[in-house]
Amino acid sequence: MLQRLTRGGRLGSGMMALGLFALSAAITALMGMPGVQDAAAQEEEEYEFLDPQMCGACHNQQHSQWKGSLHALAHNEAIYDRYFIQASQETDGEIELFCATCHSPIAVMNGSIPFDEPPSSPEDTVLPDKAEETGVNCDFCHSIEDYTELRNAGYVVDRSNVKRGPYEDADAQGFHESEYSELHRTAEFCAICHVVDHPVNGIHLEMTYQEYQESGYPEEGIICQDCHMNRNLGDPPYELPGKAAMTGPEREHVADHYFVGPNIVFAEETGADELKELSLKLLERAADVEITGAEVADGQVVVNVDVTNKGAGHSIPSGITELRQVWLEVVVTDADGNTVMHAGALDEQGAINDDTVIYTTIVKDAEGNATTKFWLTEEKASDYRIPARTTLSETISAEADLEPGEYTVTTMLQYRSVSPFGLSEVGMPEGEVTIPVITMTSDETTMTVE
């Protein structure tokens, strides 16, 4: 039985006017598509998706890696949950399907989402079935057989006992049927969900695949999985020998299932510590900064910095970039270690001072206000990020009255997955999550003032 759960260009056609009415019409159109109707109409004969723990009985390594990942947490991770609740409240539930078709796909296919009433707390988003609650899980990904478009969850799911993967000789010894899938060996498999356009006006909200397409890596045969499903993060050795299942044959390469990424938010699960270590390593190898000049001129300290995206197969940052922030922090200290100039510092509320360069995307709502609520986006006001394999030259300056002497200049490229402003927009209770500021890379030099 096939279920086609797609979103895309059809939603935006003829709906360029924004607002709840247009959004409601767009999502209603989605809910009327054949695949979504089939999910409810054919309930009695449907294949029941498995609790991932059952998959782990044979695929123990993959399950132990996956269960601490953001794929496993895609439905109930605290930040997503707050955005989902806020979006549902502000659209009277109309946006739920748009979010959940990627984040909670089995719940959508089972008809558990949309909820009967817009949720008002995390307790209201708890799902009744383990296969639904565990977000983007084994049985879902390995049931995808095709796609209709590379954006907005344009996947085609074969809801059956046939599981697809990258091995031509896979044999599950009767537990399930196995089928080779070339799609699972491509970047396009990831693009199905990692390209997101606004459901009404079509504004590009997540462009990771497009950024990858322009990076030069596709021409070299490098795909998403080479970094995000390999503990060596794109460095040699590229192959990870092992078994895909406990009773299976030894293979030259078995992909990791950590799904390493920059969001340092994990469940308290076995393996999450290793995933955090890999995620930090991924961030640290992605970029370089180099101080190319530092001087005092006309009463100002002027620092020139080259910032290079050397290791990411897409822009820095990528993904939901209206939430994410990367910025340059520059600190100048005297011989006694006293700070005499500090650009890119955080204020008491955690906001970045505007005396530095910030790599992020700013979207605005109908009133022209900056927002992280993607569903309110009417305009992409700015998009300044570091493309793959690109060096950007930046100048940071600030007033400073320096005495003659030697000074130390330190530049850091900082990252955080969401700003305090974003958390406040969706009513995140203080202390519920901790968003660390991570130094991706740094450089240091000395400056002499005559």
What would you call the quaternary organization? single chain
Topology, number of strands:
19
Give the CA-based shape: globular
Strand content: 25-35%
The pLDDT mean sits at 90
Structural class: alpha+beta
Structural domain count: 2
Instruction: Give the number of helices.
Output: 15
Ends distance: 78 Å
Q: Which stretches are low in confidence, meaning pLDDT under 50 for 5 or more residues running? A: 1-21, 28-44
Radius of gyration: 24 Å
Helices and strands in order, then pairings?
Layout: E1 2-5, H1 9-12, H2 20-31, H3 34-41, H4 52-56, H5 60-66, H6 78-90, H7 96-103, H8 105-110, H9 130-133, H10 138-141, E2 144-147, E3 155-158, E4 162-165, E5 177-180, H11 187-191, E6 195-197, E7 204-207, H12 208-213, H13 225-228, E8 242-243, E9 250-251, H14 272-284, E10 287-297, E11 300-309, E12 325-333, E13 339-343, E14 358-364, E15 370-371, E16 379-384, E17 391-399, E18 405-416, H15 420-425, E19 438-449
Parallel strand pairs: 4-5
Antiparallel strand pairs: 1-3, 2-3, 6-7, 8-9, 10-11, 11-17, 12-13, 12-14, 12-18, 14-15, 14-16, 18-19
